[in-house]
Amino acid sequence: MAREISAGGVLIKPMKEGWSIAAIEPKRDDSQVSGKKSTSKPVFALPKGLVDAGEKPEQTAIREVREETGITGEIVTKLRDIKYFYVRTWAGGERVFKIVSFYLLLYRAGRIDDLSEEMRVEVRRALWLPLEEAPQKLAYKGEREVAQLALDYLNLHPDLRASANTLEH
Questions:
Q1: Residue 115 lies in a domain
Q2: Which of 72, 73, 117, 144 could be stapled to 11 by a disulfide with Cβ–Cβ 3.0 to 4.6 Å?
Q3: Residue 159 belongs to a domain
Q4: The whole model's pTM is what?
């Protein structure tokens, strides 16, 4: 059985209405998903990707968030590892055990959805979602749980808003 190690981030930014997170809508072929063209609901996910050789998961989380959203963030804390199995739709339907380490990142710079053309192959768009809504709006159970952990962390650390506002570029 194949194994994959990935990392991703819940990147937060203080907004007037409260905290928001950088989410992505992955590019997908609607005809494969529903057999119809573009009538399905958008799928929202957290930015994540494979840990490259010689890279630490924290570095991967920062890199993937930047590549998939256009935003640079700084690690605040590790939130959780999510472990699951999936079956590849390529490579003969091989079963894969995957671990994704998720980190809470604080906004430092960048514009949401400012992506390279190469990344547009993977990501349809990047957008801000209110953190309060993320546990309902994210498509995957593990990612909804991670968003809830981020919300819980922020409720326990109200001082983070003050440091985010003073350090924001």
A1: yes
A2: 73
A3: yes
A4: 0.89
Residue 37 covered by a domain: no
**Domain count across the chain:** 1
What tokens appear for 20 in the block?
């928001």
80: how many CB neighbours lie within 10 A of its CB? 14
- Calpha distance 64→68 (Å, rounded): 6
| Residue whose C-alpha is closest to residue 68's, from 116, 105, 6 | 116
116 vs 86: CA distance, rounded Å: 28
Four-point Cα dihedral 28, 46, 149, 50, nearest 10: 110
Residue 38's pLDDT band, with cuts at 50, 70 and 90, is low
Q: Which residue has the tokens 């749980």?
A: 145
Is residue 9 within 8 A of residue 102, CB to CB? The reply is yes
Task: Write out the residue range of the structural domain in which residue 27 sits.
Answer: 2-31+42-167
